[in-house]
Amino acid sequence: MKKTTHSHLHLSLLIALFLGTVVCLSAAKQAPTISSYGGLSDADAMYIKKRQLLYYKDEFGDRGERVTVDPSLVFPNPRLRNAYIALQAWKQAIFSDPLNLTANWVGSQVCNYEGVFCAPAPDNKTIRTVAGIDLNHGDIAGYLPEELGLLVDLALFHINSNRFCGTVPRKFKDMRLLFELDLSNNRFAGKFPQVVLKLPSLKFLDLRFNEFEGTVPKELFDKDLDAIFINHNRFVFDLPENLGNSPVSVIVLANNKFHGCVPSSLGNMSNLNEIILMNNGFRSCMPAEIGLLKDLTVLDVSFNQLMGPLPDAFGGMASLEQLNVAHNMLSGKIPASICKLPNLDNFTFSYNFFTGEPPVCLSLPDFSDRRNCLPARPLQRSAAQCNAFLSRPVDCSSFRCAPFVPSLPPPPPPSPPMPVPSPPPPPPVYSPPPPPPSSSPPPPIHYKPPPSPSPPPPPAVYYHSPPPLSPPPPPVIYGSPPPPTPVYEGPLPPITGVSYASPPPPPFY
Ligand SMILES: *[C@@H]1O[C@H](CO)[C@@H](O)[C@H](O)[C@H]1NC(C)=O
Ligand SMILES: *[C@@H]1O[C@H](CO)[C@@H](O)[C@H](O)[C@H]1NC(C)=O
Ligand SMILES: *[C@@H]1O[C@H](CO)[C@@H](O)[C@H](O)[C@H]1NC(C)=O
Ligand SMILES: *[C@@H]1O[C@H](CO)[C@@H](O)[C@H](O)[C@H]1NC(C)=O
């Protein structure tokens, strides 16, 4: 069902691309006559000419849209004129807009367009410029044209829960102020959009619920980001050791096909509040260095192939509230230090091979210990299962994970001068992100809070690897509301021009 929709979509995209190319060719041919337009300044004529060559072929060989600017339109300043070109090109790249969000994208008053927010330009307070786009939950189908790169002052670009497909235009590199990029719950595909690595101001990257595939560039973890959401894609790779360099407070990699070690360099991520590695193919022991993360509140490594014991050092995570290690192949005794953590209110370690559980664990506000090898506890594995598994001791060194190199005494400040004005993301709402609908109908229009926490993939039988389905997110639990709503309460971008500093990332993942 979904598949059919996709191929139709891609087919129409192909057709549109083809038609676009034809249009571009004829436009290029007309170029020489353009200066004969009455009332058009030479500069304008040059500009349009350049544009027309541009959409024939830009320096990347990409096509553009055919946008000409009616000479009778008056723009308050050249940046808004560029914004007009960008938004009209985008409108042409939209095949379906069932909520009519772009219906008023007409004329030179781009600041009045639905979903477009203007603010004084950061480098020139006397002029207004486009600072934010918010078309979240728009159900729009189309793609992103290269012209969007003309929105050079954009700080926020939020288009979650639409049906945009294709890739992220390379011209996005011109958005030097882009702070938040939320492309979640769309139909983007192809390789990781490298262009995001070139955005110097980016703090919040949300690509979740798309169809990106292949590897994730390790440079992502050297970037000064505050939040990385790339869950529910088709990424396949080993987490690199430089993960530990990332200054993020939230990172969600769930529901991809990451494998290899859980890197010990995690212990370097001193800003970390939440990390969700659920439902991948990680296969290693748990590095004790995770215990160094004093601010971590949520740790979820469930549905992987982790082995060996839970390190006693995990008792160092003084802020930990939610710990989920379920559906792995962990063994040994649960350290009492973990169950004594003062803020721990949910510890799920079901579906492992633990053999010991200190009494203090039984008085946690919420815990799950079923399907282990715990003597005298209900709902455990059979003796045969336990004996079969436990007869083969686990050698953690056999995974050949890189050893930990601790930070030097004065740890380099993870964030550069620019103060992040708002505190780190709010306490997690610990529930899996509302996934995209698994059937073809578009996501519901109105945001509903995410469903109450439900464990993701259907419990694997015994210790099989997590559901190795090729269409990654197991459809069963999905089919409800779309992902995160706009993060902001109140008018979105810096409308008042107070600053370009934006609020913290959304609490959901
Ligand atoms: C959008 O516009 C079309 C055509 O004008 C109209 O039929 C439809 O009802 C509109 N949809 C919404 C949600 O306003
Ligand atoms: C700000 O913009 C105005 C209007 O375009 C222009 O006249 C002025 O020179 C600009 N100032 C600076 C500092 O760029
Ligand atoms: C931890 O950070 C230090 C200093 O930034 C670095 O030298 C070291 O390689 C990092 N360790 C790991 C395991 O990434
Ligand atoms: C505790 O965490 C588990 C696993 O994430 C979840 O299924 C359960 O609902 C949580 N309990 C509460 C009370 O939130």
Automatic annotation (TrEMBL):
Domain named Leucine-rich repeat-containing N-terminal plant-type: residues: 86-118
Location of this chain's protein in the cell: Secreted, Cell wall
Residues that span the membrane, as ranges: none
GO biological process: cell wall organization
UniProt signal peptide: 1-24
Keyword Signal attributed: yes
Task performed by this protein: Modulates cell morphogenesis by regulating cell wall formation and assembly, and/or growth polarization.
Source lineage: Eukaryota, Viridiplantae, Streptophyta, Embryophyta, Tracheophyta
Location of the region described as Disordered in the Swiss-Prot/TrEMBL record: 411-509
SMART domains found in the cross-reference section: LRR_TYP
PANTHER family reported in the protein's UniProt record: LEUCINE-RICH REPEAT EXTENSIN-LIKE PROTEIN 3-RELATED (PTHR32093:SF120)
Pro residues bias locations: 411-494
Name used for this protein in its record: Cell wall hydroxyproline-rich glycoprotein
Alphabetized UniProt keyword annotations: Cell wall, Cell wall biogenesis/degradation, Glycoprotein, Hydroxylation, Leucine-rich repeat, Membrane, Repeat, Secreted, Signal, Transmembrane, Transmembrane helix
InterPro entries for the chain: Leu-rich_rpt, Leu-rich_rpt_typical-subtyp, LRR_dom_sf, LRR_extensin-like_regulator, LRR_N_plant-typ
